[in-house]
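Q: How do we represent a protein-ligand complex in a form that can be generated cell by cell?
A: Start from the inputs.
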Amino acid sequence: MLSTSRSLHRLLYSSRVSPAAAADLDHELGSILGASIANNRHDAITGLLVCVQGCFVQALEGPAEKVQLAFGRISRDARHSDPTVIAAGPAEKRLFGEWNMCARVLAPSDAAILDVIDSKGEFEPEALTPTSALRLLTTVAGIQRETALQALTG
Ligand code: FAD
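Then emit the C-alpha cells for the protein with flavin-adenine dinucleotide bound:
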C-alpha cells in the first residue's frame, strides 16, 4: 500500500541522455524501466521519467532514505550524465502514486513542453525551476492518465 506518510520525500532532477543510450533509446528505456519498477516497488518509490530533447527529467517520491539511495544509484548510471537535483524535500502527498515508474518520451512539438520552456527553442534543463519541473512532470502525468483511460474505454 503506497500510503501518504510523514516521511514522504520528493526529488526532482534533470540529466542528459548519453550518446550511447540515445542511439538505442527504446531499448535503454525498457531496461531502465524494468530495473526501476522492480526496485521501486520494493522500496515504495513512485515516480515519472520524462525524456525530452536528449534530456531526462524524473520525479522520485517515497521514504526519504530510499529515495536518496535510489538517486545515488541513478547518479552513477552511465546511460546519462550531469544529474542535477532541481528540488528535494518533504512532500505532503504522492503526485505519481499510480506508477512505481513510468516513462514517456516527448516530441519537441508537445504542448506540455512548450508551456514549460515558454518558447520554441532548445529545451534547457538548467532553466527548469522546482515549479516548472513539477509542472512539466504533472502535465505529462495527466497526459499519461488520459492515454490509459482512452485505451480502456476504446
Ligand atoms: P541491475 O541488475 O544492476 O540492472 C538491471 C538492468 O539494467 C540489467 O539489464 C542491466 O544490464 C541494466 N543496466 C544496469 N546498469 C546499466 C548501465 N549502466 N548501462 C547499461 N545497462 C545497465 N533505478 C531504480 O531503481 N529506480 C529508478 O527510478 C531508476 N530510474 C532511472 C532513471 C534513469 C534516467 C536512469 C539512467 C536509470 C535509472 N535507474 C533507476 C537505474 C539505475 O541507474 C540502476 O541501473 C538500477 O537501479 C540498478 O538496479 P539493479 O541493481 O537492481 O539492477
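Residues 130-153 form the longest helix (24 residues). The beta strands are 8-17, 46-52, 55-63, 80-90, 103-106.
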